[in-house]
Amino acid sequence: MPELDSDNRVGEVKCIRGKKLRLTVVGVQALRAEYNRTIEPARVLAAETLKLERPLNDLVNQAYGMTRAENGSNMENRAAAYAHPTTQCYS
Asked: Which of 15, 16, 40, 51 could form a disulfide with 89 if both were Cys (CB 3.0 to 4.6 A apart)?
């Protein structure tokens, strides 16, 4: 799955809007500014949350004498659950 950085996000929006509702230069600039203002900081916080959650998860597993496999809380699967599917643009 491709990383949805600012450029890819703009491409996704253009794809969804189609040829009849093209984005203007000002619209693209606004999308990039909003991405940098909201999405990127949220991605950083989500990554930090996962980083903090791993040792906590291990401590809980240890306290109950369980492995990640036994309780089904594999952190890689949890990280994949946070991923967003991308739109397929066929133009």
From this structure: 15
Exposure letters 55-81 (e unless 16+ CB within 10 A, then b): eebeeebeeeeeeeeeeebeeeeeeee
The structure tokens listed for 78 are 């949890």
What single-letter DSSP state applies at residue 67? -
Looking up tokens 């991923």 gives 83
- Per DSSP, 88 falls in state P
- Label residue 6 by pLDDT band (50, 70, 90): confident
pTM: predicted TM-score of the whole model, two decimal places = 0.54
What does the pLDDT average to over 43-58?
A: 90
Mean pLDDT of 46-71: 86
Residues 6+ apart with CB under 8 A from 56: none
Looking at residue 33, its amino acid is A
